[in-house]
Amino acid sequence: MIRLRSAPALALAFCFAAASGLAAQPRARDLGVPFDGTPGPLNAITDVAGVEVGHATIIRGEGKLVVGEGPVRTGVTAIFPRGHANHASVFAAWFSLNGNGEMTGTAWLDESGILDGPIALTNTHSVGVVRDAIIQWQVKKGRGEGEVWWSLPVFAETWDGWLNDLNGFHVKPEHVFAALEAAKGGPVAEGNVGGGTGMICHEFKGGIGTSSRITHGGYTIGALVQANYGLRRQLRIAGVPVGKEIPEGAFRPDEDGSIIVILATDAPVLPHQLKRLARRASLALGRMGSISGDGSGDLFLAFSTANTVPAERNKAGTVQLMNTEDLGPIFAGVVDATEEAIVNALVAGETMKGRDDHVIEGLPHNKLREVLKKYGRLVEK
Q1: Which of 75, 252, 282, 302 lies at a CB distance of 3.0 to 4.6 Å from 194, suitable for a disulfide?
Q2: 298 a catalytic residue
Q3: Which entry of 151, 212, 282, 296 is annotated as an active-site residue?
């Protein structure tokens, strides 16, 4: 973890969580939570070759909210489907389980089935600045050969206004650039980092989580979530009603918040099949107990690195297509990896005090283990 401080005029505290060199922290499997399926070596979205993830985390101030001054509990997470160096596009598709949220660039995804450039995640009121900063970064860096004529980047948000000075507009282009530059392969920081810094999940501290699965045929499915949804009483982990067993600290009468799920795979699937993969993330939310309430923006995107999208005009490309009857194990991998990514976000989320001294407790690890043991679901190490 590298902590830097910006110029005094900005008075911002940066915490760049790169995808390597991280301090060890427990994950759901370390606590004895049982999951189906076989994870990849890192149990992260970066198990899909080429995928890179970076975070820029902004934490400043405490006490009473003063709009424009803080407290600030927010950040940016960036995902590169093929890494910094490879500018080739990928096939992609998206799905909205409930649309009370924003994911930009989706009209072109529907039209073309092509994802061009990085994906970014942050808070609701930073949609414009993050989208524009991605374009600025692409123009500065160059994308392929020659001038960047146009870009319709994909950016998604969830609301962090319970802990963060949301209307202070603290996410700036330099934070987006920092997240993009920090993106690397390898282990991925989880919990209170990047876009997940101020997020709440089932009324525990939520944030960023990731997981992966190796499926039949050796294909890899990776999931990364920005988890900010759900009520305590709904929460189920490994089929156990954890939320009802640990009710302390619940404060919401109705389900509120959102979740973004980014899915990566090296399976040779095309956009219409990726749409089917994206839909399956809904089943993981169901396992966790979510009903995808009216106030929730539950938006999912899936991309595949297997095929090279034809880049030259007047020249046809060749792509591989997976038999639709072979997709079952891929679907299972999506559901299993997404479920574990959400639990990893909960396990990694640490107690945070934010605006107006609002405190969101992290999921207590010892109590989680006690509840799992009570129901006969604890995996003893």
Answers
A1: 75
A2: yes
A3: 296
Q: Please provide the DSSP assignment of 300-347 as one string.
A: EEEEE-SSPPP-STT---------GGG-HHHHHHHHHHHHHHHHHHHH
Each residue's pLDDT tens digit, 253-309: 887 789 999 999 999 999 999 999 999 999 999 999 999 999 999 999 999 999 988
How many domains does the chain fold into?
Answer: 1
- Residue 217 in any domain: the answer is yes
Residue 380 included in any domain: no
For the stretch 132-150, pLDDT in tens is 999 999 998 876 555 677 8
CATH number of the domain where residue 362 is located: 3.60.70.12
Q: Phi, psi (5° rounding) for residue 160? A: -120, 25
- Indicate if 89 belongs to the active site: no
Q: What is the CA radius of gyration of the chain?
A: 20
* Residue 290 falls in the annotated catalytic set: no
Tokens of 347: 């396990």
- Determine contact, residues 13/186, Cβ cutoff 8 Å: no
Would you state the structure tokens that stand for residue 247, as one six-digit string? 């009710």
213 neighbors 221 (Cβ within 8 angstroms): yes
What backbone torsions phi and psi does residue 298 show, to the nearest 5 degrees? -110, 95
Catalytic residue among 258, 282, 292, 304: 258
Q: What is the pLDDT of residue 146?
A: 57
127-141 and 173-182 helices, crossing angle to 10°: 60
pTM given for the model: 0.94
